Amino acid sequence: MAEKTLRAAFPIFTRKITAHVGIAPILAAVVLALIVLGALLAPWVAPHDPIAQNPIMRLKPPGPDFLLGTDAYGRDLLSRVIYGARVSLLIGLGVTVMAVVLGLAIGLVSGFFRVADAIIMRIMDGLMAMPSVLLAIAIVSLMGASIWTVMAAITIPEIPRVVRLVRSIVLGAREEPYVEAAISLGTSMPRILWRHLMPNTFAPLTVQATYVCASAILTEAILSFLGAGVSTETPTWGNIMAEARIYFQLKPSLILWPGVALSLCILSINLLGDAARDILDPRMGKREN
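^ that's the sequence the OP posted. Answer follows.
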């Protein structure tokens, strides 16, 4: 009886989710889940060592032993694409956490304290005036190339976007009666920020975090492609495409497959961000439709 009930309820549940957010975010979630699983299980999923060179097997076409072929050093392309997801996702997640945490703290202070607001926003305007990729390249050049410095270099240009979002929310919320009542009752400023203002930012920050993550993954790929990212010995989607560009006319698939993986990952994250926005703020979704 219970099994029949579950079988009957599952299609109804699926239809409700599909009707609410559409089929695209569901497909995006599946694709992103596969990419994440592949990255986590790379040592067991990848058929070959991603850095082991075999000059005899260089530039081999796809076949039973090498499903996507090999690169100019005889390394399995599929294994390198799978391992490349690990660095890209790590940097994307790390940048998102740092940008959201720092942006939230700075945005709360900027929106609540008018004296600090003028100084903070001038700094944020200055950072936003600089092209993010050029700023990241300059930071990496000064600090040296590693996963952590690349992560920091990508985080700094992302912080102003989060700060401006949080600040705008706080500026609106601080005029609400419950906030004014808390101030008049002598509630401490940290408590007002923590209990009354910060909860208003959770839904918008959830949506913004997805866009920050997608932007960070793309920026990391650009930096690696330009030679300003992590070490070329580390498989990343950007490094794979950078090494393959001189062989583009001879074997375009060397750039095609990491490019497809990068595009699918970013597209999936953006679609999930749009779905989260529609769920958390249905009015915005209706306005755009």
